Amino acid sequence: MIEEQLSQMDREVQECTRCELYLKRTQAVLGGGNPFSELMLIGEGPGEEEDRQGVPFVGKSGQLLDKILAAAGFSKEENVYITNIVKCRPPGNREPNPEERAACLPFLMRQIELIQPGIIVLLGSTALKALINPEGRITKMRGKWITWNGIQVIPTYHPSALLRNPDLKKDVWEDFKSVVQKYREEIDPHHHSNYT
Ligand code: SF4
Q1: Which of 18, 26, 44, 85 to mutate to test the pocket of ligand 1 (most atoms within 8 A of CB)?
Q2: Which end of the chain is more exposed for a tag (fewer CB within 10 A), N or C?
Q3: Domain that holds residue 50
Q4: Does ligand 1 have an atom closer than 6 angstroms to the CB of 87?
Q5: pLDDT of 141-182, one tens digit each?
C-alpha cells in the first residue's frame, strides 16, 4: 500500500512541471530508504549525482551522512527514509527559491502523511525554512526539538555544510546523539548506537 502510493507519487514527480526546476533535471528524485521507518530525514534537493542516479544522498554528502547514520545505528536499508524539500535538482546546486519550495511542498506533505514518522531530522537551513519557519536560522535552531503536527522534529546542519566546514561536525554529532536518545524514548528503547 505505502509502496504503491510512493510509486504513484514517483510517476507524478517524474512528469511534474509545477516549477521551473523540471527544465534542467535528468530525473526527479522522490526519496529513498525504508518507507516503514519511524525516522525521516529531509534535505534540500538532489545534487548532480542524485540527479544522475535518481537516488537521494548518494554523492559526497550522502556518503558522509551514511557514516553519521551508521554511527548512530541507523541505515537507509533498515530504519531511515530520506527525501528532500524539492525533488528536482536546482541548477549548479543553488538553493531552491521560495516559489520552488512552495510548489514542491505538497509532495513532501504527502510523503510525511504516508510514512508517518515519529521523528524528523531536518538537514540544513532550506528544510528548516520550508517546513517549520521561513525566518528560522539553522545556527540558532539546530539541536533543539520542536513538536510539529505531533512529530518530534530536530534541525541540524546539512552534510554538505560539514564538507565545507569540518568544525561543524561536533555539533552534528551532538544533534545525532540527541536523535538516538529520542529514538530510544519514543520508538525503540533497545536501539543500539556507537554514540552512547
Ligand atoms: S521540484 Fe517539485 S514542484 Fe518543481 S518540477 Fe520538480 S517535482 Fe515539480
Answers
A1: 18
A2: N
A3: 2-186
A4: yes
A5: 999 999 999 999 999 999 999 999 999 999 999 999 999 999
